[in-house]
Amino acid sequence: MKRVLIYGGTTEGRRLAEKLAEAGIPSLVLVATEYGEQMMAPGEKSGRIQVLQGRLTAAEMTALYEREQPAVIVDATHPYAEAVKKNIRKSREGFRQIPYYRVCRNPEVPEEREDARYFDSTADCVRALRSAAGNILLTIGSKTLSEFCRYPDLRERLYVRVLPSVESLEICGEQGIRGDRIIAMQGPFSEEMNRQMLQETHSEILVMKESGRTGGEAARIQAAEKAGATCFIIRRPRAAEEGLSLERVFSEIRERFPWEDIARAAGGEGFSKTRLKVVLVGIGMNGERHLTPEARRALDRAQVLFGAPRMLESFAGNYKKYPFYTRDRILPVLSELQETSREETVCAGILFSGDTGFYSGCRNLVPALKKLDGAEVQVLPGISSVSALAAAVGICWQDGKILSTHGISEEDWIPEFLDAAAHREKTFLITSGAKDVQRMGQLLAERHRGNCICHIGCNLGTAQEQILRLPPEACKNFEEPGLCTVLVENPDPQPRRLTPGMGDDVFVREKVPMTKEEVRALSICKLHLTAPAVVYDIGSGSGSVSVELAGSDPSVKVYSIEAKEDAYNLTCRNIEKFGFSNVTAVRGAAPECLESLPDPTHVFIGGSGGHLEEILVHLMNRKRTIRVVLNTVTLETLAEASRLMEKYELEGEICQVQVSRSRKAGAYHLMQGQNPVNIISFDLLSGDKN
């Protein structure tokens, strides 16, 4: 199978070779420099790309055609590479029968900006620079550097950005450019990077060539505008821009290769299902502006793009766009592409705001993508709103608690938030907008957290970005539009208690019986509580066990079940006193009132109302393992519990605890014993007999 010969050294040349390789079409890519060869190296993994490095004369090009007999010749060199274009034209004089294409970076003449100066040639630009004042950031490479260094007064004002190749650095040295005025880096360069270079070099002028999107023209112009610098732009040679887009050239070449030939070249009689290369990309907070260079390169190779509509809007290019961001919408499209595409490989990009590993749909999508036959999945991170807000405020974030309200019910996020705000110096809250910020302010104010400071990052990374510093009370009236991320700083966080043992005197007390402090602590330890958990406190009485369980961890959801009105009211008062939102009082008798509650992981029974067996049978029917702790004071209940353990073959333990407390009697202290309490604990295993 004949190869496609590509004169490359540009992004378009590399992308064309990769697309051809994915379609099963081999190519020989010619690059002038060692650096150009290094940039092509990733594509060589396909086995269908060969790279030849070195500058060729017209005669050497002709000899190459005779030896290779290429199927197609493609000129994908830089728009300004006039010397090599001249050699290509001359070399083809005896080979007009070989199809030839010129890849045009941008077929349309770009619209010129009023705030920039344009020049038809390098010489015109040099003349204008000599009459202008200030340092100059030169971003046009090294090939025409000699024209700018011809005049010492101009050379002394230059900072030159070139490729990090030996050839480029040698040219800089030959032209007398000092090492501290050379920036040897490979792009792409973001707007922010360009702006910082202008500011660090104190440059008032940025010199660039008209290069379009691929050459990063917009990022440089916007950076110059923000840095207060003037752009000097050397126009692209118009005559050299006759040609076709990369996609059109690829399509034309693809049609010249019969499907059967490609299949044989691939090593089989026909193609198997199309392979998928899927890259999930965190795009930060503002689309292309915040992309990492690796993510930008990955998306440049993509043929299809998925994401929320607002994300897709900021990405120009020849993508087939799908406004989908959930697993159930994306997977069917990819499966269909595998079945219907005639290409060997389809590259797909999936966009996520912020970072892919941070409250992202990536978590559910990646495992599903990996199950697709022939899918290669890559995840590229981005900048999260939390790291952006922390940087804006000037603090570190690794020791903060990070929570989100986005798509999460209040029942789940409020307990976590209140716990973090009480015990942490820093709590980050990713919200869905003003309504969540108002609710956050209300919660902090109600819990007497008025000393907290709320840093609110509004529309981070956009032109509308604001960083506000408000007390909780002011947050209740917050109405700024857009997405918000909040940092709550607590200057006086409460130490977290790691063991049970809240004093009896901290609870509201009435005539309702209460599980005393020592027995309560031991009973909670016997529960073997884990997080997250769903706990029933059956016969809650004063609610002391429920409150202590709720305070152990915000992920523990407690249901306080109480049939007696006075005890139920007392439970509610104690829940309200401590302000835990992860405990719910339920009025009713067990087991009837348990039907509508979620399956428990742990159950504490402080009072069964004479229905112990019915309660245990109900719990067994939940078909899951449940840890049960039962407290009894009377011998009758102890005997009933022992009978039920034997009847249902429950293995556990019974321990009797008697607590004595000292009391003062005149000048002396006496120990006064309390009623002994039997603590019974066992596991109800899924499938126990009933």
UniProtKB/TrEMBL annotation:
<keyword id="KW-0808">Transferase</keyword>
<keyword id="KW-0560">Oxidoreductase</keyword>
<comment type="pathway">
    <text>Cofactor biosynthesis; adenosylcobalamin biosynthesis.</text>
</comment>
<dbReference type="InterPro" id="IPR050714">
    <property type="entry name" value="Cobalamin_biosynth_MTase"/>
</dbReference>
<dbReference type="Pfam" id="PF02571">
    <property type="entry name" value="CbiJ"/>
</dbReference>
<dbReference type="InterPro" id="IPR012818">
    <property type="entry name" value="CbiE"/>
</dbReference>
<dbReference type="InterPro" id="IPR029063">
    <property type="entry name" value="SAM-dependent_MTases_sf"/>
</dbReference>
<dbReference type="GO" id="GO:0008176">
    <property type="term" value="F:tRNA (guanine(46)-N7)-methyltransferase activity"/>
</dbReference>
<keyword id="KW-0819">tRNA processing</keyword>
<dbReference type="InterPro" id="IPR003723">
    <property type="entry name" value="Precorrin-6x_reduct"/>
</dbReference>
<keyword id="KW-0489">Methyltransferase</keyword>
<protein>
    <recommendedName>
        <fullName>tRNA (guanine(46)-N(7))-methyltransferase</fullName>
        <ecNumber>2.1.1.33</ecNumber>
    </recommendedName>
</protein>
<dbReference type="InterPro" id="IPR003358">
    <property type="entry name" value="tRNA_(Gua-N-7)_MeTrfase_Trmb"/>
</dbReference>
<dbReference type="Pfam" id="PF00590">
    <property type="entry name" value="TP_methylase"/>
</dbReference>
<dbReference type="GO" id="GO:0009236">
    <property type="term" value="P:cobalamin biosynthetic process"/>
</dbReference>
<dbReference type="Pfam" id="PF02390">
    <property type="entry name" value="Methyltransf_4"/>
</dbReference>
<keyword id="KW-0169">Cobalamin biosynthesis</keyword>
<dbReference type="InterPro" id="IPR035996">
    <property type="entry name" value="4pyrrol_Methylase_sf"/>
</dbReference>
<dbReference type="GO" id="GO:0016994">
    <property type="term" value="F:precorrin-6A reductase activity"/>
</dbReference>
<feature type="domain" description="Tetrapyrrole methylase">
    <location>
        <begin position="277"/>
        <end position="470"/>
    </location>
</feature>
<keyword id="KW-0949">S-adenosyl-L-methionine</keyword>
<dbReference type="InterPro" id="IPR014777">
    <property type="entry name" value="4pyrrole_Mease_sub1"/>
</dbReference>
<comment type="function">
    <text>Catalyzes the formation of N(7)-methylguanine at position 46 (m7G46) in tRNA.</text>
</comment>
<dbReference type="InterPro" id="IPR000878">
    <property type="entry name" value="4pyrrol_Mease"/>
</dbReference>
<dbReference type="GO" id="GO:0008276">
    <property type="term" value="F:protein methyltransferase activity"/>
</dbReference>
<dbReference type="InterPro" id="IPR014008">
    <property type="entry name" value="Cbl_synth_MTase_CbiT"/>
</dbReference>
